[in-house]
User: What shape does this take?
Amino acid sequence: MPEQDQQNAAETAVATTQAPAGPPARDIRITVDQLAQLPESEEKKRWISSLMQAEVARQYYAQDRQYAMDAYNSGQYDDLKKLSPQQGVALAITKLQTGRNWGFNQADSLRSIYFVGGRPAVENDLVASKLEEVGGIRLDPEFDYEDAVDEKGRPWKKCVSCTCWPKRWNPGTRTYVAITDRHGDAVSVSFGQSDADHAQIWEGGKQIPLSQKWNFKSWAKDMYYWKCVARVKKFYAPGVLRGATIREEALLETVATEGMPAELLPPDMQPNHPAGDQPLQATVEPPETPTRRPSVRERVLEQESFLDKPGPAREPGDGE
Assistant: This one.
């Protein structure tokens, strides 16, 4: 009999979760009180755990939606304000939820996550910090320079390459030790002017070397370093920010393979117009002159003028 009572209690609890034959009057959900009627089992524990996770997810979603609406209404996020309110809020929620899975806070998620070519991309500094925080990898960069002369004839140190030596945290010795290859030698990743000269991308409808791109010409040292960071993540820490790529890397890949026009790049990634070029001028239609309602005097004069005009000749009998 006890087994029969337990089976009846289980059937009663399950029956309460089934939808009635007619249209439901309200949303019926399994509650903890209903699950408490079931006999103790691993399945019951999993059900209760699932209910708790679902409730937490609903609370997170409500918070994310409110935060996303505030972010969109602020008008301070370039990738959000160019969308419709529905799309902008949805994109913000997607960024918040994606960032939570990667361990980002709300501010970092909205500021540093972008979608390039349908793939999530992360700002450079966040990738470097996550390599150290999650992967326990710290980068030791080394830059190479050559003596050069700038356009105004002044000598300067021109950065021509960057080499990063990744080191991984050793809990035993509580120090960072070099990552070694199968031969026991310390590994390194490099990127320099020669690599940028050989890499080809599309810009302005033609193929040019990566070294001729505006940001590589302006901030070569920074670009070489971030390319090294991308390679460290790709080669030695693929599990960190799995599924994401560095934003700069994603933009360059999209431009190189698909020929993304410069005007489609994010505002902070668009090149400045050189001194000799004229930026495109936006065509502004002149505003329409509002139609003024004629005054009573004008309407009377117009009516008198109409009455003074000779009308068509009338034949005898017309209108009689």
In short: Confidence is low (pLDDT under 50) at residues 9-20, 271-287, 313-320.
